[in-house]
Amino acid sequence: MEDKLTYKSAMEEIESLVKLLEENKLDVDELSEKVKRMAVLVEFCKGKLHRTEEDVNNVLKSITE
């Protein structure tokens, strides 16, 4: 089991995978696995951003009432 994933570590991993793709450093045997991993990371980041936006909006709403 991996350590707790953070937004920062997910973005760093995505950037690393994108770089490998751009530089054609992934062989066909790795490509599918890496693209699937990237999709998981992107979904994690989207969820984290959405939850953070909701939290910030709730805080702002509570201080303006």
Description:
The chain has 65 residues and is mainly α. The protein contains two helices and no strands. It has one domain. Helix 1 runs antiparallel to helix 2 (28-64). The protein is rod-shaped, with a radius of gyration of 16 Å. It starts with 6 loop residues before the first helix and ends with a helix. The mean pLDDT is 94.
Write the SSE topology.
Layout: H1 7-22, H2 28-64
Main β-sheet: number of strands, strand sense, barrel status?
A: none
Shape: rod-shaped
Number of contiguous helices: 2
* SSE succession: HH
What is the structural class? mainly alpha
The percentage helix is over 70%
Termini separation comes to: 43 Å
The portion of residues forming beta strands comes to under 5%
Overall strand count: 0
Could you list the spans in which at least 5 consecutive residues all have pLDDT below 50?
none
**Overall average pLDDT:** 94
Rg value? 16 Å
Number of separate structural domains: 1
Protein name: Exodeoxyribonuclease VII small subunit
GO molecular function, one term: exodeoxyribonuclease VII activity
GO cellular component, one term: exodeoxyribonuclease VII complex
Coiled coil: 4-34
